[in-house]
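Now for a specimen:

…
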Amino acid sequence: MLGAGLDEADACDVLANLGASDSAGRLVSEGTGEWMYVFKPLVAGTPVYLKLVLREGCLIVSFHDDEGDADEEVP
């Protein structure tokens, strides 16, 4: 079970269906200095907060209910 009550198949479905309207900006990782791309898609009517770092593939850094995360985002 992943964050936000999603299993692996659910998370893959959310990722496969991300659109431009789900984008919530980007921010710099304090740990690695890499850009993290932030998305806030609706899943079953509930906003979910996820951050992605693009490398050779796609790494999910965070995937949880949107709780008004206070990270400073850069459009």
